Amino acid sequence: MNILILGGGGREHALAWAVLQNPKCDRLIVAPGNAGIAEIAECAEIDILDGGLVAAFAEENSVSFVIVGPEAPLAAGLADRLRDAGLLVFGPSQAAARLEASKAFTKEICDAAGAPTAAWARFTDARAAKAHVRAQGAPIVVKADGLAAGKGVVVAMSEDEAMAAIDEMFGGAFGAAGAEVVIEEFMEGEEASFFVLSDGTDVLPIGTAQDHKRVGEGDTGPNTGGMGAYSPAPVMTPEVTDLALERIVRPTIAEMARRGTPYQGVLYVGLMIRDGAPRLVEYNVRFGDPECQVLMMRLGGQALDLMLACAEGRLRGAQVNWAEDHAMTVVMAARGYPGAYAKGSEIRGLDALPEDSRHMVFHAGTARRNGAVIATGGRVLNITARGDTLDEARDRAYAMVDAVDWPGGFCRRDIGWRALGGR
Ligand code: AMP
Ligand code: GLY
Known about the structure:
With 423 residues, the chain is α+β, with helices and mostly antiparallel strands. Helices cover 30% and strands 29% of the residues.
């Protein structure tokens, strides 16, 4: 079958790498892709927010399965448009994508489903929001309701910080995404990400991961899109996983179906775990980036069968064949990220790195210029490795990092520290 993957980051490179290992894939096109993806698949420069254009492109190229990577096209209704055109799509409808596109919507669903999450309130004006913060005290969490590219959440340790966040959001810092603000109880505990597929009715867990959002070692400094990740997450014991499924995931999927907006695709369940009890932090309606890279490293070619079963409503009885393995990805970013950074610096040494079932360099923000690989984004490379233990995966990943010749880049040296016992 001919398959089209939408997106152009490390997540989509990992999806492409896994899909290509499955003999069902005859031809793979990734739009827009990047320099790393171009080494393994065809890339096409098309506007993936334009449903009509993507549908026409799919038809011209006899594509029968479309995998949507990022959230923006899903929130804009791309999956609906493609399904209307008769295509098989992996990714939720616009109505179901509200689980990521609106924080207040997610909280309503949690309340209706009885899913444990932080206490919350919603506001459309700053005065009432501030009065609420004064009544609750700090720490407290202030969130822009809509999509804000991961920047719309402020975990305020003081009331002043919360007030400033409220002013910023209602002041238009996030455009329409900040027209409504959700204020939440601050939850303590350990965070983990839980990934499940749902075909609207059935649910299949496909792995757990933890990422490192802060730019600095020891999880310090400003937030980023993620500086590294590993799978599985030790905190997601079988007991915690069962609790998350039974109390949070299944009731959510049932509530979405009850409302006539069934959820089909991967659901990224962000959890806060304390004393063995998981509570929902957030949902995302797509794979995490860079969590997808470690999940794909562990799933390999079966990822395509699972995504097909999900899109075709065949998840009942589907199984994941797990190896007792561990994967880690280390993000190499351009110096300065997540602040201002230079684009266009050259990366050398990539050709000499091993690329096999245990080692892979996924490209997140690269392009090729006159034969050379250059950095075009903040997060640029995802150096990913698999091993029998997390230590082994880590040693393999950092051995590759050390072989990359890129003076314009940096990475955290401590990815996995929590799971590795604070090393
Ligand atoms: P979100 O985009 O909703 O995942 O929020 C980004 C990050 O903010 C999460 O990964 C958490 O680290 C933190 N966060 C969000 N909501 C809460 C909460 N209610 N309590 C504590 N931390 C939170
Ligand atoms: N790594 C966090 C995310 O993809 O949202």
